[in-house]
Design brief:
The chain is built from three helices and no strands. It has 71 residues and is mainly alpha-helical. The chain has a domain of 41 residues.
């Protein structure tokens, strides 16, 4: 067998964090985080909502900063 016979999984062409504006609801931050970590976007959205409520709204500023700085 040669090295060409081995099948390898398709590697993503883009590396690092990026906003996913195509699949996102608002600015694509949650869908970008979900894509980066390989988790479901619904879990990230629920986590952001709970973090905003429990953190007295400070996560909103972090969310907006990520949305404006990334990409």
């Amino acid at each position: 067998m040669s090295a060409l016979d081995r099948s390898s999984p398709i590697q993503p062409t883009r590396r690092g964090f990026h906003l996913d504006k195509h699949n996102g609801k608002f600015m694509g931050v949650c869908s970008g985080i979900a894509d980066y970590f390989g988790v479901d976007v619904t879990l990230v959205r629920v986590g952001v909502a709970l973090g905003t409520i429990l953190g007295f709204g400070s996560l909103i500023l972090i969310y907006l900063a990520i949305g404006l700085i990334a990409d």
